Description:
- The protein contains 16 helices and nine strands.
- By secondary structure, it is an alpha/beta fold.
- The protein has a single domain, classed as TIM Barrel (Alpha-Beta Barrel), CATH 3.20.20.
- β2 and β3 form a beta hairpin.
- α2 packs antiparallel against α4, α9 crosses α10 and α15 packs parallel to α16.
- It is globular.
- The protein starts with 5 loop residues before the first helix and ends in a 5-residue tail after the last helix.
Amino acid sequence: MAAQRKLMRVLAGEAVAPPPIWLMRQAGRYLPEYRATRATANGFLDLCYTPELAVEVTMQPIRRFGFDAAILFSDILVIPDILDRGVHFVEGEGPRMTPLAVEDIGTLPRPSVDEILAPVFETLRRLRRELPEETTLLGFCGAPWTVATYMLAGRGTSDQAPARLFAMRHAAEFDQLLALIADLSADYLISQIDAGADAVQIFDSWAGVLDETSFDRFCVRPMARIVEKVRRARPGTRIIGFAKGAGALLEDYRQRTGVDCVGLDWTVPRKLARAIQADGAVQGNLDPLLMVAGGAALDAGIDRVLADLGEGPFIFNLGHGITPQADPDNVARLVQRVRAWGGA
Ligand code: 1CP
């Protein structure tokens, strides 16, 4: 059955009309039912580590909109959490943790992902039982560069200067950190596949702050390392790579990393998007703010993305996560319009 799911067919390189659709961050604060469940949890990480609650919030957007994929409810920062970095989420501000110093790198623990993240795998097993047969179940993790930016700064920043400076000053230790995160992330994804994920997405949300050489060293190579490790352990695993802001560097991203599908943020020009699609699946590209604006601007944006990318192997998605200000009615309108599309 898994191979026939619409989204899985696209990941195998098939063009499907209308394209399958899901949204990054589809479970989240723009949904009143999410806010209600969130209020019953003892903090954000409790929501991620309590299978009953994580299953509920993962299912909410599926029930409401009937997306073609559900994405495990968790966060990319569970990896720093199991590395004992003191991860916590400050209401209205975002994630915080103890900033990593150069002398900490050699002393980081080597946790067994399988044991320590057992509740996450239980969430996936329950989800596969609850989801409609035709719905793809996606697992995910953060890419090493993006996870490292949070570990080094201890929080989100606008330009990731702390991580970039660290990489300039301590190249050997930085490579060591990326390799550690890559290996843990590969183990994490392998266990997600074993627990029922059909495919996985790797989020490199901060790829866009790097020059070409650093992008190659910090994003492409660690991504290739994860892909290689996962495929060696679980041959045929389908992987989506999302390197936000990478622009022209996305041109040969599929070949250099080995991912099946290339995520496109909303700034990727259509000419480049189509060139990337010439040799395989792409996903994304709609400006997430259209989910706030709605109306004619939303319709025009949807139609443009479908006209440009709908004919090749394509997964409809936003160019980044949906924001808390998005209107759920606009999401319903989006799904309806994409499903009504009959091809160009
Ligand atoms: O209090 C809350 O409800 C917190 C909001 C929230 C949510 C709903 C956070 C904190 N994480 C999540 C869930 C989440 N995070 C998912 C769940 C599944 C889904 O998509 O529905 C996923 C895939 C993520 C991934 C994630 N977390 C990324 C990569 C994708 C992206 O948006 O770029 C990143 C960078 C994070 C870190 C993070 N976690 C939370 C916040 C607010 C942030 C960003 C912080 C920052 O940079 O300042």
